[in-house]
Amino acid sequence: MQSPYDVVIIGGGPAGLAATLYCSRRGLQVAIVEARDSLGGSLRYLYPSKIVEDYLGFPAIKAIELAQHFEEHLRKLGNVDIYLGHRIIDYELRGDVKFVRSLRGLELEARAIIVCIGASPIKLLVPGCDLPGVLTGFPKSLSRFRNRRVVVIGGGNAALEAAIALSEVCSEVYLVHRRTEFRADEVLVERAKKLPIHFVLGYVPTEIFGREHVEGIKLKSVITGEEKQLECNFVIFAVGVRPETEVLKERGLDVDDRGFIKVDSQCRTNIPGVFAAGDVTGGLGGLMTIHTAIAQGFIAARSAYIYLEKPYWARE
């Protein structure tokens, strides 16, 4: 058992990295634990090939490259313990000393915990959603879609970004959205309209069909009830994310009806000494972006510092 850290941060995405940076600069004994083999979170593992256009200072940078910048910064700190390849499967959150254990047997104690485990893209549970060729989120590699027909489902930034990227390599791209208006940034909507993307608006999927792989999708109009089907090789859901917080809920952490951890404006949870940041909280001000994850990471770490050290400036 590792002797107690001041803070253990669970998750190596932007929120966790920002929290680690703040804790390090405050002189806290800190460890960060990441389930994968490298740091970066969704930037590295969910959409590494995506061009990030809205991160200040980098007008257009691949997500994987931004993740590398973040990791290089963290590794220069020198006073941070980094544990990679350890998926945390159990927590003890009550009491003055917290405890976490990984699937591989790593056991750590800490006076405070910051949960930054992110959230994963979800599928709509329609018949056929488990067929090979049904995917979620932004494509990790575009080469497999070359000269293929792809249906993207969703109306937010993730869906528009996926459709725009796929239009460069696919024979046909369909964008299916249940509404006739989009949540996505206007710049993305206008760009998509100028590309060879077929917009199918006001429709929802009712079934994905195929024998051993996706062959097509059935749709139904939410306005008229009309049904249609499209032939395709892939279906990509970009309809939102959901965190994996079941164990945390079992250990007493409050979550909402979608599983996101409930936090206050200072990223404090209902359990003293336990904080959360990033997509696992549902975002900040209705936004789930790299910027907001980093902001919450700093806020959560500051709250942890105040909880542990009780500085004079926090008492005034």
Outline, from the CA principal axes? elongated
Please, what is the average pLDDT?
96
The amount of helix comes to 10-25%
Strand proportion, as a percent range, falls in 25-35%
As residue ranges, the low-confidence spans are none
> Can you count the beta strands?
19
Task: Please describe the structure with a list of short key phrases separated by commas or semicolons.
single chain; 316 residues; alpha/beta; FAD/NAD(P)-binding domain; 2 domains; five-stranded parallel beta sheet; 28% strand; elongated
Brief sketch in words of this structure:
With 316 residues, the protein is of the alpha/beta class. It has helices at residues 14-25, 42-45, 63-75, 157-166, 186-193, 246-250, 290-309, 312-315; strands spanning 2-10, 30-34, 51-52, 61-62, 80-84, 88-92, 98-102, 107-115, 120-121, 134-136, 149-153, 172-177, 197-201, 203-209, 216-221, 227-231, 234-237, 241-242, 274-276. Helices cover 24% and strands 28% of the residues.
Write a structural description:
The protein has helices spanning 14-25, 42-45, 63-75, 157-166, 186-193, 246-250, 290-309, 312-315, and strands spanning 2-10, 30-34, 51-52, 61-62, 80-84, 88-92, 98-102, 107-115, 120-121, 134-136, 149-153, 172-177, 197-201, 203-209, 216-221, 227-231, 234-237, 241-242, 274-276. It has 316 residues and is of the alpha/beta class. It folds into 2 domains: 2-120 and 241-315, FAD/NAD(P)-binding domain; 123-237, FAD/NAD(P)-binding domain, CATH 3.50.50. Strands 1, 2, 5, 6, 7, 8 and 19 form a 7-stranded mixed sheet that branches. Strands 10-17-11-12-13 form a 5-stranded parallel sheet, covered by helices on one side. The longest helix is centred in the last third of the chain and has 20 residues, at 290-309. It is elongated and about 65 Å long. The model has no long low-confidence stretch (mean pLDDT 96).
